[in-house]
Design a protein that fits this description.
The complex is a heterodimer of chains A (358) and B (168).
Chain A lengths: L1 H37 L19 H12 L10 H17 L9 E4 L2 E4 L8 H22 L3 H32 L4 H6 L8 H4 L1 H14 L24 H26 L10 H7 L4 H33 L6 H30 L1
Antiparallel strand pairs in A: 1-2
Helix pairs in contact in A: 1-9, 2-9, 3-4, 3-9, 4-5, 5-8, 5-12, 8-9, 8-12, 9-11, 10-11
Chain B lengths: L1 H21 L3 H21 L3 H26 L12 H27 L15 H9 L3 H26 L1
Helix pairs in contact in B: 1-2, 2-3
Classes of the chains: A mainly alpha (358), B mainly alpha (168).
Chain lengths: 358, 168
Amino acid sequence: MWIDLAITMAKIIFILAITVGFFAPILTWVERKQSAIMQDRIGANRADILGFTALGLFHIMADGLKMFTKEDFIPQGANRTLHTLSPIIALIPAILTFAVVPFGGKYTLWGTEVNLVISDLNVGLLFVFAIASLATYGYVVAGWSSNNNWSLLGSMRTASQMISYEVTMGLTIIGVLMVYGSMQLTNIGAAQEDFWRWGFFLQPVGFFMFFAASIAENKRIPFDAPEAESELVAGYFTEYSGLKFGMFFMAEFIEMVTIGAIVTILFFGAWHIPFLTTATLLSMFDFLGDSGANLIVMLIHVGVFFGKVTLLIFVQMVIRWTLPRFRYDQIMKLGWKILLPLSLANVVVTGIVILALN
Amino acid sequence: MELLIFYPLALVSVILAFLVVFNKNAIGSAVCLIGMMLGLAGVFVLMQAHFLAILQVIVYAGAIMVLFMFVIMLLNLKDDDKGWKMRERNVWLTSGTGVLMIGVLYKFMDTTAEAEFNSPATVPDNFGTAELVGTSLFTDFVLPFEVASILLLAAMVGAVVLAKSKVD
């Protein structure tokens, strides 16, 4: 009982530390540096402590300090309660998804089985989907409660964009579900031990559609119509300052990590290394004893998982900084007229192939 | 132990349900309604119906309420609807429906009052999972299920026809 509780607490702390504590702040720096490299600039390097700049890493601290000390501004005529509540509504779902994300397999350490997922729901895949659909409200309410027409336009675009791409997302998830026959994310991860059984090979079209839909859900370029810096000032969070703005900012970066994690689990073999099964890995570290080998393999798998996540985040950043943007009507057209029929066809074709192979 | 989770959930759901009715602005009501649906989803989880709980969140809290909000924003109901009043006839209809609803609730309470609380019914292990819900939908309840889908299809066609005639 107590040891289970301790293990669960450890997992929760680990996930919070790595997403909120590590990925989110580091990504703000990576995004700056990476965009600088892509645009042939030097990028953030001015913030220094006693002359040390540490490649601009101190900018994270400077940013944090700035957000903490800025005036918390609520515009006249705004709905104060909802204006304050909406950054929280936006941030919570972003973090909550990690409750069902497995970042490793099952390992036996000194007699206790450790399952590297906080909550192993049998409807885990649907849980991710449900939470993603809840994330909309923070942004929608934010724009509405600001009493600003730019914000309102931004949040209306958010609502319509989310509705449109959620359908595609749901249908691509069905493809994955049919292939692996399970909605439990740990099962889907475990089923991809063989390299050629990775979701990317079994559902190639599904992968591209899912990735596009999830970037659209995160409202990043090329699907940035709700923010639309060049049209709507900053869209739904135009009227936000200080730490509330920071929360929207954080939510976006954490969601990037979430997308990376979910795509890794569904399409890129979760924590598995290509052509290296868990059994072979275990036998390689046999000399450490049973628990020792399990421990080493666990660390390797967690490392591999977050390595893949990092790679996928990098892909998202590269897409963002090539700076293509869809117009609002193009986003709708792509969602309803191209992605939706394609995802439906994907489900049908997947069904036919599964039927033919059996 | 379960009551410790149930009572806060139930309390929050009921309070939010009242707030839906008494809230001054439409978006506030919608937010409260979403909160209430999440509370209900929690109650479903307590009853071992995980799949139903998730569906409640995806369909009602997730999809339908986003559309509600979208429509409310499109109509842009703000403070200028203070002059809005219910029509006389609607007041009577609403009260009548309320009385009927209380009757239904009384019937529910009557049935639950007879149940013994200390002997919960045994449920199979896979109760409430997606597999079981799917199997029963496609075997025992296949006719109602198909009828419902035809109804939805008809509604969809109707919506398309209505929207088309306005655009052209």
